[in-house]
Design brief:
Length: 375
């Protein structure tokens, strides 16, 4: 894009680099000055994001952009590299964002120089309402999310082996899957040490059985039909439109995109981002909304009953993400700790409500037990 070196941190930003960035996006303008603003505590656990306000010497460009760079926290950056999420997000925006009608931010620049060096320059979504992982989603927010997920999943349904999707890892076998299994083994006890007051007895009691079943659960997640999933579909990554010219929803943080079962995204939002009482009352209808949107998008031979059972098993399998996030990421800031706490509570309660530990027997085998022992 430019002959000026890509910034490694926000301190490296210059007016010249910003000028070449906006020009590279087809905007005939020259940046004269800029100012930087933090985006808020707990935002960007796996990367660093700042709002950058631009003034121009000539031409007319965006007044504010979001610039996303690698995490400065060593622990979080190490997790990001283990899952190769920086390269994955850049290539999502370059290769496939325009193939779905699900709302994604406008991109001025998506550049990656190595697995640990990337930059994204995105439209400012400050006029939208950002979801709150701690508060959770209300019914209207959840309904909009189910429609968005149907719009994301339908174009790729049971058709994920196209060349342009080669950069997207399968749930397994992949570096992603390996890191998730290893993170589960390493993270369980650490999660209990940090969040012991919120990890319930019914989850503590199945530690060994659950960890032994992780490989088989991952294998299930890549059985047909599969699609492209967001992979981190939670409220802190969802922006809701507030005016007629807005998308109903814009989804950010595509760094975890995967080839997996679509119900994975559904289960992630409803079991970890929705207040428990609302989920209990509405989850069947919400799964039906997702399924209906899939059908409207051309998906066939996939019944509501299939969708519901995939949802249940996905909620169980997603406890691995709870363990990895709560057991390996830095929880030292209050906001990050608060949403991790709610994630644990909601997910564990959903597993109990839906009798999902009864499903563990489906995923237990000598092979999975050996894998857990080896870990």
């Amino acid at each position: 894009m430019t002959d000026i070196a890509m910034p490694r941190t926000h301190d490296d930003l210059t007016a010249d680099w910003l000028t070449q960035t906006v020009r590279g996006a087809g905007i005939d303008a020259t940046v004269e000055t800029f100012t930087r603003r933090a985006m808020g505590e707990g935002v960007g656990m796996m990367a660093t994001l700042e709002l950058v306000d631009l003034t121009y010497r000539d031409g007319d460009g965006p007044g504010t952009v979001v610039i996303k760079l690698p995490a400065v926290n060593d622990a979080n950056r190490a997790v990001a590299l283990a899952f190769d999420i920086y390269r994955r997000e850049v290539l999502f925006y370059r290769n496939i964002a325009d193939q779905t009608s699900a709302g994604t931010p406008k991109v001025l620049l998506a550049q990656v120089d190595s697995p640990e060096d990337f930059v994204l320059v995105l439209e400012d979504l400050s006029d939208y309402r950002l979801g709150d992982q701690v508060v959770g989603c209300d019914l209207a927010d959840a309904e909009a999310a189910m429609v968005t997920l149907g719009q994301l999943h339908a174009p790729f349904w049971d058709d994920v082996d196209r060349p342009e999707l080669d950069f997207v890892p399968y749930e397994t076998p992949s570096t992603h899957g390996d890191a998730l299994r290893e993170g589960s083994l390493v993270g369980w006890d650490a999660m209990v040490d940090v969040f012991g007051d919120v990890v319930p007895d019914h989850m503590r009691a199945v530690k060994d059985r659950f960890l032994a079943a992780v490989p088989a659960m991952q294998q299930w997640l890549v059985t047909a039909p599969t699609t492209i999933v967001h992979g981190d579909f939670r409220m802190d990554n969802l922006f809701y439109g507030q005016s007629p010219d807005h998308h109903e929803m814009v989804v950010i943080d595509w760094q975890g995109c995967l080839r997996s079962k679509g119900a994975r995204d559904v289960g992630y939002l409803l079991s970890q981002s929705m207040p428990t009482e609302l989920r209990r009352e509405h989850e069947r209808d919400l799964v039906a909304t997702w399924h209906r949107t899939l059908v409207e998008g051309g998906v066939t031979d996939y019944s509501y009953e299939d969708a519901w059972e995939d949802y249940r098993r996905s909620v169980l399998a997603l406890w691995t993400l709870v363990v990895v996030i709560a057991g390996t990421l830095d929880a030292s800031n209050d906001r990050g700790r608060a949403w991790m706490t709610e994630m644990i509570r909601r997910s564990a309660t959903a597993i109990d409500d839906l009798d999902l530990l009864d499903l563990l027997v489906e995923f237990e085998s000598e092979e999975s037990e050996e894998s857990a022992s080896e870990g």
